[in-house]
Write a structure and sequence with these properties.
With 136 residues, this protein is mainly alpha-helical. It contains seven helices and two strands; from the N terminus they run αβααααααβ. Helices cover 49% and strands 3% of the residues. α2 packs across α6 and α5 packs across α6.
């Protein structure tokens, strides 16, 4: 009987469910952070992507179905890294990292993701645990 119990415990460990990853729908930024992000976005991004994130002549929208489809199943770390490394196009990487994460918060807000009680961090490992998913 002891052998069966040991086997059962091992089997349970092998088939244990992985921890659920957070999504953008879990309130992963604060309203204050998104408000800071909006100001920074207008200054650094609005000229190309428009202040309402609807996209410009040569730049894609940062909200709506096409945006959601592009980033579906990516992590917030990937979105943050893209913004921090590639934007603005005329001076990539010039926006401070703390400002970039605020901009990402604003983008999440404009894609109807709810705010929460904790701010998004610039910690890549933590951002890798948050998945950009379509609206539930």
């Amino acid at each position: 009987m002891a052998m069966l119990t040991g086997w059962s415990a091992s089997t349970l460990v092998l088939f244990a469910q992985p921890k659920r990853r957070a999504t953008i729908w879990d309130g992963v930024y604060t309203t204050a952070q998104a408000n800071r992000g909006q100001k920074a976005y207008v200054k650094s991004c609005g000229g190309c992507h428009r202040d309402d994130l609807s996209g410009g002549d040569d730049e894609p929208p940062l909200r709506g179905g096409n945006f959601t489809a592009k980033w579906k199943d990516a992590t917030v770390a990937e979105l943050y890294d893209f913004v921090a490394s590639n934007m603005p196009r005329n001076n990539p990487g010039s926006v401070p990292l703390e400002t970039c994460i605020d901009i990402v918060s604003f983008i999440l807000k404009m894609n109807d993701a709810p705010s929460g009680s904790a701010e998004l961090t610039t910690d890549i490992e933590k951002l890798q645990q948050i998945v950009f998913t379509a609206k539930p």
